[in-house]
Structures are given as C-alpha cells and as structure tokens.
C-alpha cells in the first residue's frame, strides 16, 4: 500500500543496517577470541619453559652431591668451595669489620639514610629510585645488618590480627619489578600502623630492580616491624639468584662491594619468616602445602638452617663420621669432606621437605597430593588436601603466590585457596596483570588489579598480543635449537620413507617427547614449521631461520649445542667453583668440572675438543679461564632479526 | 573399498581434531580438572571437556565458524556508510556497534576504537582498518 512504502523502505534499511552491524560484531568478537587464545598460548609457553628450567635447577642439587663425592681430591685444597656447597656460617660477619672500611664520599648524591629509620626514609628511597639512583653499598649493608638483627627476633610464623577498620593488604611475587611496587604503594598507600602489608615472597630475580625492591621492603620493615610482614619465597635463595639474575644485578650495580652484599644477603634470606597467619584464619605462605604439612613442626624448626633448595641435608653415616680438628675449626666426615661445626647444623630431611613443600607447591584441581613434576620440587595438592589441612589447624583459607596468573589472582579449591601475583607483565609486556588483596575479618577479600604499561598510550590488543606471542615463540625456538640433534633423530625415526615430512600428529609427538613441554603443538605448528598443501609438516623447516653462533669455525655442532643447552647450569656450577667471585677458574678446575658434568649428564663430547675450543677462543688468561666470556660466546642468532644476540641471557 | 578408506580418513581426521581440541582445552584448564570458564549462560559457569569435545568436533568437521571473508566485511561497513565517504565517524560507529545487532559492551567498544580510530580525524577509515587487521591475521 501507499502508506506502507516509506516505512517498509525504512524497515529494509534498518534491517540491512542490523545485518551489517552483526557481521562486523561477529567478525570482531571472533578476532578478539582468537587474540585472547594466542595470548593464553604465549603465557603457557612461558610458564612451561620457566617450570622446566626450575626442574633443571633442582636437578642440579643431585649433580652437586655427585660432584662432592667425586671431586674431593681437587676440593681438599679448596675448603672454601666445600663449605660454600655444604653451607656455612663462616666467620662471624661483624658489621664493624665491614662498615668501618666503607666510605661514603661527599660526591655521592644518592639517598642517604638516617638510622634509626623513619617513614621519611621510605619516601626518600622511593623518590631516589624513581630517578634511577643507586643506594650506596654502605647503606645497603647497614639495612641488611639491621634487617637480619630484627628478623632473628621474629618467630617462624607471624601472627597478626585485622579489624573492620584495619584491613591488611597481601601482595604476591614482585620479582624485581619496581614499577609495580611503586604502583601498589601509590594506589594502596604506604605501609603504616593503620595500613599493614604482607609481602608473600619472591621479591627478587628476573626483573632488573630486585635490589631496589629489597631495599624499600626492608626499610619499610625496619620502620614498621609489626605492620610490614615479609614471607620467604623460593627465590629468596642465593642459589636461585645465581641462575635467575639477582646475583648478576648486584655484582653489576656494586662492583666494589657486591660480594660482601651477597654474603650478608644469604644470611638475611634464611631469617625471613616462613609464613603469616591472619586472625587465626588465613594462612599466607609463598607456595602451598602438602598432605604431610605439619604447622606445629614448622613453628618449631630452626628456619635459618634452610640455606638453599640446592643444599639438601647431607646424608650422614653416624658410625663412620670422625671429628678432626684443624685450624679453621672444621670437622671432617669419612668422605674427606670438611664441614663447619657439627652435623647438627643441618635440618633433618623431614624438616627440610616440610619447608620445600611450603615454598614450592602448587594447587591443582585433581584430588590428592603428587610430586610437582614440572618444577621438580614440592608437590601438587588437591582440594581434599586443602580441606584436610585447613580443618586440622582450624583455618579457613590459604593465600599463596608462586604462580603467574593472567588476571593477577585466581581463586580455586572452592574458594579456599587464592593465588595472588603482583608482578604485571611478568614474562613480557602484555603477558598478565598484577593484583593485590585486602582482607579483614568478617568481610570477603577484595581484589585490586593493575597492569604497568611503558607506552604513554595503551597499544591496541592485537599489537600487544603480537608482541607477547613473538617473544614466546622466539623462546620456544631457542629451546628447539638447543635440542636440534635429538629432535632430528626423533623425527627421522618416524620418517620411514625419508621424505623430510611427517604428519602433524607424528611431529607433535616428537616435539612433546624430546622437549618435555606440554604445549598445544597442533595449534602452534603454524608458527613453528611450514606445512605443505596436504597438511604434512616439513620438519627441518623450524631450523632454517635460527642457529647457534659458532664461536670458532672448526667446532663440532654437537659441542656447541650442548654448551648452549646447558649454559645456565654451567653458569651456576662455575659460579659455585669460583667462590671468590673473580670470574676466573683455573684450566684444571674447568677441565675436571667439564669431565664430571659430561659423565653425570651422559653427554658424549670429546674432552680434547673443549680444550681446543677454549684455546682458540683465547679465553685463557694465565692458566685461568674467564667462564662468563666462554658462555657468552654461545648465543642464538635469529636470521630475520634486527638484533644479533638472543634476548635470553645467561643468569 | 573407497567407502572404507574414506571412513578411515574421517576417523583419523576426527582423532586428530580430538587431540587438537584437547590441547587447546588444556591451555585454558588452569586447574587441570577438565573444566574451563565459560562466558555463556551456563548454570555453573564452567563447561566440562566431555560435553565440549563432541560439539567442537562437529564444528570443526563441518567447518562452521569460518573466518568472515574480507569483501563481506567491507560491504558491511559500506552499508553503514551509504554516502560513501570511505569512513565512519566515531559517533556513528559507536551508535551502530552499541545499539544494533548484538550490542558491544563498553570494554569491547573501547578496544575496537583503540585500533580502528584515526586520532587526527576522529573517524574510522574502514578500508584501511580491515586491511590492517587482515595482514595481522596472517
């Protein structure tokens, strides 16, 4: 009809508009979902590699035991190394000895702390660190000494109470991300009597301002010892610091006094409390629990005897242990290894395991308690374990950290376990948010999230995801190249027709087996290999645009691959041998170490090759080898990269 | 014969799909208890793997939810720009996206604008936008 025409035209118009809008919306949402998935994949890659590395780290402790048993002839002359490995409370680290010798010059324009510390010193440090100033070693040492003194008076678990008007804030891992701490203090207020905090471990490693974070936290603690609570994390461990970057940061920032600082820090770590209990209801520890967690025992142990995860109690055969006096006042076991003091300087194995569980465990949905196979230490604990342990000690909730979560926090086990992680962009810019929690008795916990961004304006999602993804893929490819020989062998075993191609399933199977990483290989394949039109994978294509730089032309590829693959472990081993932190070890030590290493890890490398390599690289400095230079020479080159060196640096 | 082979082919394809789906599911299943969060109206807020697998397999086999082709997307924008300016103003885009079809949330709108809008003209040159997104996808 006449009157219907114009409205029907209008209807048609709005109908097409609706359809068009729908098309755009559907497309957009499909893309967003895809982007979020890619982001999550990237995170999974980072996490798997991180945990695999931790596992490698923990396996090192077995190597050290092996080393001690087989290396003693060389070690007889090097008691420092042994005591370093077995733990020692060496000479009384008298502060007057150290501090008396250090001078703060007038030309120093960094922050100057005034003891006894007050809240103005906290502000002072924050302002100074915002301007990238470095606190003088003198003050660092003073703070460390004072912190140790105060921590020694604290019990293993801090008990604290909240009230409706006094909430407590709980922060998770910071890992050297200073900006996140600034943000927390700015958004949530500085610590004070009315604004208490718990920092749940892992203040250091990986980020580049671990030192500054420690200083701010320790100074905050010294000013408000009853309101700023620090729990030990698995990274508050001098052995972990060697691999994960903090040791390097200290030695770089404090060229003169770094070694001294590291020594004192070792001690301070051991005095950090194991956990905090809030209102007798909430248990706050860094990792988690296990089915055998015994809070009463943990309240009683001498926590400072837990030096490092890599130094488990040495099994001692009591009958054959003999005591011999020598000039340093050490004793000697039948193995010829000298230890300091009596053997009761160690925790029992049971006590040690209890601490490991607290620092390293992760909650999982599966019921029961299982060894934590990805990390290599602690366990996976299920909701039934949580209920059992919480009920046993009449607690209501467990708050822990230790795992990076995309949203900064995560609730599981029916609301009984909360993970809080405070380092945003932990793996890479855009990888995750950070969070903190505020609790008070009687009210449900409140969560606050944030994400630091270095750009002045936030980049669109697709750019951020691209960045995280490329970084993750790059890391994964480097992993692949360090296992190139094993991978190719595995591929060829399945490639009966020697075509150079495999089905996706076959390829995925080999990748998972050889690399030991549980990843969505089928979905990732498009980023790692080329596929032909039949859907088959050209397995050699992953290795085309990436190779390990040959430090010298005539070197066997397997040697290069091996050194590259184990470079982090070698770094730590060398570091441990180099007890005076000079950066040099003798050629003889280098050779014996290499021999032990290759036999323990079943690596088939001709020893003579290594000698030749070291010589050709001209790293021999009067019979000593600069092992940092040695290891740095093995890096990965990405062909289509503007950068020449790999971003993944040795710890 | 041919039937057997094609059935076998489908079975292998299904098995491969199953593995691919499982891998992807596990990435999101942070608690390792075979459930993932869901943003749909599920009474529990979770979806179980056993329920997810057959539905997803069918989706993949029937090749549903294929990516929307570039030219269709372009035409959709052109419908909203009948005067053929070549761009939509910020206000126009917001109006269409938040009032028509299945409306965007504020977060979705902001996110889309952050990538689509040309800050100088405060408008969306949709052809450029589409090209940029498509390049990125590959």
UniProtKB/TrEMBL annotation, chain A:
GO biological process: detection of stimulus involved in sensory perception
SUPFAM superfamilies: EF-hand, Metallo-dependent phosphatases
Name of a matching Pfam family: EF-hand_7
SMART domains: EFh, PP2Ac
Catalytic activity of the protein: O-phospho-L-threonyl-[protein] + H2O = L-threonyl-[protein] + phosphate; O-phospho-L-seryl-[protein] + H2O = L-seryl-[protein] + phosphate
Domain EF-hand: 565-600, 605-640
Names of the cofactor(s): Mn(2+); Mg(2+)
Superkingdom in the source lineage: Eukaryota
EC number of the protein: 3.1.3.16
GO molecular function: calcium ion binding; iron ion binding; manganese ion binding; protein serine/threonine phosphatase activity
Key words, A-Z: Calcium, Hydrolase, Magnesium, Manganese, Metal-binding, Protein phosphatase, Repeat
Spans through the membrane: none
InterPro entries (UniProt xref): Calcineurin-like_PHP, EF-hand-dom_pair, EF_Hand_1_Ca_BS, EF_hand_dom, Metallo-depent_PP-like, PPP_dom, PPP_phosphatase, Ser/Thr-Pase_EF-hand_contain
PANTHER family documented for this protein: SERINE/THREONINE-PROTEIN PHOSPHATASE 5-RELATED, SERINE_THREONINE-PROTEIN PHOSPHATASE WITH EF-HANDS 1
Similarity field: Belongs to the PPP phosphatase family.
The protein, known as: Serine/threonine-protein phosphatase with EF-hands
Annotated source species: Balaenoptera musculus
Gene encoding the protein: PPEF1
UniProtKB/TrEMBL annotation, chain B:
Gene3D superfamilies in the record: EF-hand
GO cellular component: sperm principal piece
GO function terms (MF aspect): calcium ion binding
Domain EF-hand residues, every copy: 68-103
Stored InterPro entries: EF-hand-dom_pair, EF_hand_dom
PANTHER family xref list: DYNEIN REGULATORY COMPLEX PROTEIN 8
Protein name: Dynein regulatory complex protein 8 isoform X2
Source species: Balaenoptera musculus (Blue whale)
């Amino acid at each position: 009809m006449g009157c219907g025409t114009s409205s029907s035209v209008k209807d048609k118009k709005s109908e097409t508009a609706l359809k068009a809008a729908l098309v755009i919306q559907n497309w957009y949402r499909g893309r967003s979902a895809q982007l979020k998935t890619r982001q999550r994949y990237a995170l999974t890659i980072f996490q798997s590699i991180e945990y695999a590395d931790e596992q490698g780290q923990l396996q090192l402790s077995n190597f050290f035991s092996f080393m001690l048993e087989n290396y003693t002839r060389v070690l007889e002359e090097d008691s420092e190394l042994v005591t370093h490995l077995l733990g020692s409370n060496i000479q009384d680290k008298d502060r007057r000895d150290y501090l008396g010798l250090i001078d703060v010059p007038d030309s120093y324009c960094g922050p100057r702390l005034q003891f006894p510390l007050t809240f103005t010193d906290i502000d002072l440090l924050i302002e100074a660190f915002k301007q990238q100033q470095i606190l003088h070693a003198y003050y660092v040492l003073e703070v460390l000494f004072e912190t140790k003194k105060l921590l020694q008076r604290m019990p293993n678990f801090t008990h604290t109470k909240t009230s409706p008007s006094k909430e407590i804030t709980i922060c998770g891992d910071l890992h050297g991300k200073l900006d996140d701490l600034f943000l927390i203090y700015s958004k949530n207020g500085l610590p004070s009597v009315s604004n208490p905090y718990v920092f749940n471990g892992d203040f250091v490693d990986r980020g580049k301002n671990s030192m500054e974070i420690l200083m701010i936290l320790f100074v905050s603690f010294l000013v408000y010892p009853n309101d700023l609570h620090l729990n030990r994390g698995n990274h508050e461990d001098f052995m972990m610091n060697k691999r994960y970057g903090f040791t390097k940061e200290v030695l770089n920032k404090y060229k003169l006094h770094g070694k001294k600082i590291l020594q004192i820090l070792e001690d301070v770590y051991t005095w950090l409390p194991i956990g905090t209990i809030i209102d007798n209801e909430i248990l706050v520890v860094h990792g988690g629990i296990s089915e055998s967690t015994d809070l009463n025992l943990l309240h009683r142990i001498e926590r400072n005897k837990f030096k490092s995860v890599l130094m488990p109690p040495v099994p001692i055969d009591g009958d054959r242990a003999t005591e011999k006096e020598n000039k340093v006042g050490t004793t000697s076991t039948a193995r010829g290894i000298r230890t300091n003091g009596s053997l009761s300087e160690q925790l029992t194995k049971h006590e040690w395991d209890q601490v490991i569980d607290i620092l390293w465990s992760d909650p999982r949905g599966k019921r029961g308690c299982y060894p934590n196979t990805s990390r290599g230490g602690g366990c996976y604990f299920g909701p039934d374990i949580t209920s059992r342990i919480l009920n046993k000690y009449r607690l209501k909730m467990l708050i822990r950290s230790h795992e990076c979560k995309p949203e900064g926090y995560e609730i599981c086990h029916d609301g009984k376990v909360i993970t809080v992680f405070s380092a945003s962009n932990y793996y890479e810019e855009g990888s995750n948010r950070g969070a903190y929690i505020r609790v008070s008795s009687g009210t449900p916990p409140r969560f606050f999230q944030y994400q630091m961004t270095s750009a002045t304006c936030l980049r669109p999602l697709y750019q951020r995801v691209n960045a995280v993804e490329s970084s993750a893929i790059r890391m994964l490819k480097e992993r692949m190249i360090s296992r190139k020989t094993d991978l190719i062998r595995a591929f060829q075993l399945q490639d009966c027709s020697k075509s150079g191609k495999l089905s996706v399933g076959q390829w995925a199977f080999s990748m998972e087996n050889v690399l030991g990483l549980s990843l969505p290989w089928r979905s990732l394949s498009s980023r790692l290999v080329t596929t032909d039109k039949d859907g088959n994978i050209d397995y050699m294509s992953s290795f085309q645009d990436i190779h390990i730089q040959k430090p010298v032309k005539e070197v066997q590829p397997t040697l290069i691959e091996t050194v590259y693959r184990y470079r982090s472990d070698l770094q730590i081993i060398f570091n441990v041998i180099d007890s005076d932190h000079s950066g040099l070890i003798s050629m003889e030590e280098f050779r014996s170490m290499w021999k032990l290493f290759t036999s323990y890890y079943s690596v088939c490398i001709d020893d003579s090759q290594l000698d030749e390599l070291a010589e050709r690289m001209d790293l021999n400095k009067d019979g000593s080898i600069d092992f940092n230079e040695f290891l740095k020479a093995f890096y990965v080159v990405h062909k289509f990269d503007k950068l020449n060196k790999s971003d993944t640096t040795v710890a | 014969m041919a039937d057997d082979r094609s059935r076998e082919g489908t079975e292998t394809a299904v098995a491969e799909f199953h593995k691919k789906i499982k891998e992807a599911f596990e990435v999101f299943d942070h608690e390792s208890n075979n459930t993932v969060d869901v943003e749909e109206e599920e009474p529990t807020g979770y979806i179980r793997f056993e329920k997810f697998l057959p539905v997803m397999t069918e989706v993949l086999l029937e090749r549903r939810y294929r990516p929307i082709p570039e030219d269709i997307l372009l035409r959709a924008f052109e419908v909203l720009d009948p005067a053929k300016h070549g761009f939509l103003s910020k206000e126009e885009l917001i109006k269409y996206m938040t009032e028509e079809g299945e409306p965007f949330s504020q977060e979705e709108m902001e996110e889309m604008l952050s990538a689509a809008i040309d800050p100088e003209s405060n408008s969306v040159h949709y052809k450029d936008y589409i090209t940029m997104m498509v390049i990125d996808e590959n």
